[in-house]
Design brief:
Layout lengths: L1 H45 L4 H10 L5 H26 L7 H18 L4 H30 L3 H21 L24 H5 L9 H18 L1 H11 L1 H6 L4 H28 L10 H11 L4 H24 L5 H14 L3 H22 L1
Length: about 375
């Protein structure tokens, strides 16, 4: 009976600790955003421009018209998936910069299936998504296995793989996969049954190219959160990131956990590529990911690698990108101020000592309260 009570108390304390950690992560994310916006405000003021008008366009512009909302959601879907793909290896303390190669591999796989393979309606959507996830997972397995089995530096491995895959992608789009008879460089369009349903069809208002990939992104975030917090594999990944030596001593196969973190992250990045092909462009186009792959790293850092917070961070970061374009159109302040805000965010989120200090102070305060209560 006593042991059962102790176990119940320990379980309750563990859950309370995890809730505190999530609250701290959300608080630090909000504080980081506010500090970055304040710095941007001061920079605009120092240049002699009107910061109030600029921030009004930046913060309200994306919501003024429905197609702007659609542009924001379209961008947020891809960016959040990329943030999630980076967050999983980061939880294992692996610095994966390979989202770009994984995205393009997923885009190639999805396009190949969606263009050339006749499938019934539902399968025409699902099979390209599965193919994209498998291709992205394969691109994640390569550097993950090199790091886990051969001791290779994951930063170098992922960057070099990016260079290879992007060049192969460019060759295929400009050559074998280029639409016959077209002067423009792009592939044929995917079959209509493979297109992700636009949100415009659901809600009856013009929302641009935003599509049901938004819901796929939300489901992916929840699934990854459950994976990390509720499964043995997630526990192994977290323990590997917390202390690999301790994890090894506790019986965890650290190389396998590292490989799985890269594979899962790669699969999610592959889904981002499928979203671009099936939902946004409807075909392969050169450089269609732009800088999104590396901006996904900022999103993961801003969310402190928590899959649920990544959704919030991705929505906010995409909102900044959309608002920056509108601000440049409506005021005399360029989008460079958004770059300043992004840079401040990166500087602040890499200062891990502050949230760690806050968590320790909360833990000490609660321990002191327990001691007082015990007396």
């Amino acid at each position: 009976m006593t042991s059962t009570l102790i176990e119940t108390e320990d379980r309750r304390e563990y859950r309370a600790t995890r809730r505190r950690g999530l609250a701290v992560d959300l608080s630090m994310t909000l504080a980081t955003v506010l500090a970055a916006l304040a710095v941007g405000f001061l920079v605009i003021l120092a240049t002699g421009k009107d910061p109030v008008a600029a921030y009004e366009a930046l913060l309200t512009g994306p919501l003024e018209r429905s197609f702007r909302v659609g542009r924001w959601l379209e961008d947020a879907t891809t960016l959040t998936l990329l943030g999630l793909s980076v967050a999983i290896p980061f939880r294992a303390r692996q610095i994966s910069l390979g989202a770009e190669s994984q995205l393009y591999a997923g885009a190639l796989a999805a396009a190949t299936v969606a263009i050339f393979l006749p499938l019934p309606p539902v399968a025409a959507v699902v099979v390209p998504l599965v193919a994209a996830a498998a291709a992205g997972a394969g691109m994640g397995f390569v550097p993950g296995s090199m790091k886990a089995r051969l001791g290779a530096n994951e930063i170098v491995a992922t960057l070099m793989l990016n260079a290879i895959v992007v060049r192969v992608y460019d060759y295929l789009v400009n050559g074998p996969l280029k639409e016959p008879g077209s002067s423009a460089v792009h592939s044929e369009r995917v079959q209509q049954d493979s297109v992700l349903t636009p949100l415009t069809d659901w809600f009856g208002i013009p929302l641009g190219r935003s599509n049901v990939g938004l819901f796929l992104m939300l489901l992916t975030a929840v699934a990854l959160w459950l994976l990390i917090t509720r499964t043995p594999l997630g526990y192994r990944i977290r323990m590997t990131g917390a202390n690999s030596d301790f994890a090894e001593y506790g019986g965890i196969r650290v190389p396998r956990a590292i490989e799985w973190s890269f594979v899962i992250g790669g699969a999610v990045a592959g889904l981002a590529g499928a979203h671009l092909v099936q939902g946004v462009y409807g075909r392969l186009e050169p450089g269609m990911a732009g800088s999104l792959a590396f901006e996904g790293i900022v999103v993961a850092l801003l969310a402190r690698n928590n899959p649920l917070v990544v959704v919030i961070a991705g929505l906010f970061y995409s909102y900044l990108r959309a608002g920056g374009d509108i601000m440049e159109q409506q005021t005399d302040v360029g989008t460079e101020i958004v770059v300043v805000i992004q840079a401040v965010i990166v500087l602040l989120v890499t200062a891990q000592a502050l949230p760690d200090l806050l968590k320790r102070r909360i833990a000490r305060k609660q321990a002191a309260q327990k001691q007082v209560g015990a007396r």
